[in-house]
Design goal:
It contains twelve helices and ten strands. With 274 residues, it is an alpha/beta fold. The strands form two sheets. A five-stranded parallel β-sheet has the order 2-3-1-4-5, with helices on both faces. A five-stranded parallel β-sheet has the order 8-7-6-9-10. It is elongated.
């Protein structure tokens, strides 16, 4: 996803972007001043600003499509150009500096009249902390699944989730047919850098659990049904290819080659569990 940080000169866009780049894994910053230095485009005319916005936002879109969380720190006053690049799960955040701004004293924001209508959120520089910004800007995404053999199909689903928000939680569904121990599965997924929790049992309250999140990523009709009464919104994902956890486990039990579908440590975990 892309977080478009908007605001006048000295508002704190670049400061926040650089802080969040260090805070979030697989994130990237595109800074308007750095772009101008690269292209030697110093024009503040409509065409000059437009060229800079197009360049910055097109680069951000490509990086986001590759799975990065991208922070774009640019004034970007031309809404009609911004609208060309913004997609459903992106966020436009207007940064306000309510303290002393030396760039105001130098006249950088004189006669600056951007079109900042329909902005998703306004955030004040003086209240910034990484944790506060993260919790307010990024949607809470849940990926509920059994993950009985973490394979490339699971990775695709998690990549889709990451395009919605980096704030992802894996909800491990426990089933009587599971072969991998819950604690071992949690350790495996946490070693990949994911936040992992256990979902409720079948006969427990799924609605209250789901309401802790904003979006859940799922394609299993049975799981979708359990979330039907919640406020949590569905991001539907179809099954990809012919990857099957059941088939992978069967192949491992028969000593067949599955290296193209799972990592070595997952294979060993399944072997030891069968």
């Amino acid at each position: 996803m892309i977080v478009f940080l908007l605001g006048g000169a000295g508002s704190g866009k670049t400061f926040i972007a650089k802080k969040m780049e260090k805070y979030i894994k697989d994130s990237f910053v595109i800074d308007g001043d750095e772009l101008r230095a690269e292209t030697k485009n110093d024009s503040l005319t409509t065409s000059g600003r437009g060229a800079n916005i197009h360049l910055g936002y097109s680069r951000a879109r490509k990086l986001s499509d590759l799975g990065f969380t991208v922070f774009v720190a640019m004034q970007a006053p031309l809404k009609e150009i911004r609208d060309l690049y913004k997609q459903e799960h992106d966020m436009e955040v207007l940064i306000q500096n309510l303290g002393d701004n030396p760039k105001d004293d130098k006249g950088y924001n004189k006669d600056f009249n951007p079109d900042y209508t329909c902005i998703d959120m306004t955030y004040t520089l003086q209240t910034f902390s990484e944790e506060d910004f993260y919790s307010k800007v990024f949607k809470k995404v849940l990926v509920p699944a059994r993950f009985q053999g973490f394979h490339k199909g699971h990775k695709v689903v998690l990549e889709i989730a990451k395009r919605i928000s980096p704030n992802i939680t894996i909800g491990l569904r426990v089933d009587n047919e599971d072969i991998i121990d819950l604690d071992k599965n949690i350790n495996l997924l946490e070693s990949r850098g994911y936040n992992v929790i256990k979902t409720p049992e079948i006969d427990e309250d799924w609605t209250s659990f789901a309401n802790l999140f904003d979006i859940y990523v799922q394609g299993n009709p049975m799981v979708i049904e359990r979330f039907s009464e919640s406020k949590c919104k569905l991001e539907f994902v179809p099954r990809f290819g012919d990857v099957s956890g059941t088939d992978i486990r069967k192949s491992i039990s028969e000593d067949k080659d599955v290296e193209h579908q799972i990592d070595d440590d997952v294979k060993e975990l399944i072997k030891s569990s069968i």
